[in-house]
Hints:
The structure is a single chain. The protein has helices spanning 40-52, 87-90, 93-107, 127-135, 154-163, 181-188, and strands at residues 2-6, 14-18, 21-22, 34-35, 61-64, 80-84, 115-120, 138-144, 169-173, 194-199, 202-204. It has 205 residues and is an alpha/beta fold. The strands form three sheets. It has a five-stranded mixed β-sheet. A four-stranded mixed β-sheet has the order 1-6-2-5. Helix 1 crosses helix 3. The longest helix has 15 residues, at 93-107.
Amino acid sequence: MFLSKHASESGTLALTCHSTGNFSEAQFGGFPRQIAIPHPHLQKSYMKHLWTKRNNFSKFEITIEATHHGPTALNKPTLFIEIGTTQKEWNDKKLCENVAKIIVEEVCKEPEKHKVAICFGGTHYPKKFNKELIEGEFALGTVIPKHALDNLDGALFSHILDRNKEAKYALVDWRGLGKNKQKVINLIQTTNLEMIKFESRGKSL
Length: 205
């Protein structure tokens, strides 16, 4: 688990969480086209706990990010937990302490097990998958955003499956796949993953 600071061009205040990996080149650590082993159950438990305390963080968006940056080669599950978005928040000792208390509580208990899914499509801040993580039944492994799907091929897909050994499901942002929709469907159909479509009206098989 890596505790880090979050920055964004928009400047939106956010408390974020994400798995790590590179779908193409490695601009910020790790190796190219390598995905870290995700930590789906701990991520879900942490995010749900953070959400229950959201009144303490009313100025912040509570959201996951799609999988990005390193490290990628560790042989244990990897999770980034970040506080954003400016130096003011990074140096806010009370804010950092409140987040740290939640983290300590989570690592001191065994997280509940859930169904695990790999996610395809959507933006860097995937609202549909974030909602599912906090309110739904699934824990999330690697999250592959729309902009990374151009890089998805058989070799990378096979590697992602290998790093997500617990995953039995594929959650698909149906309108967030762009031109790669058929490629994603074809790849999923080569596996035993159960595909679940997330559409504007909700999720469907």
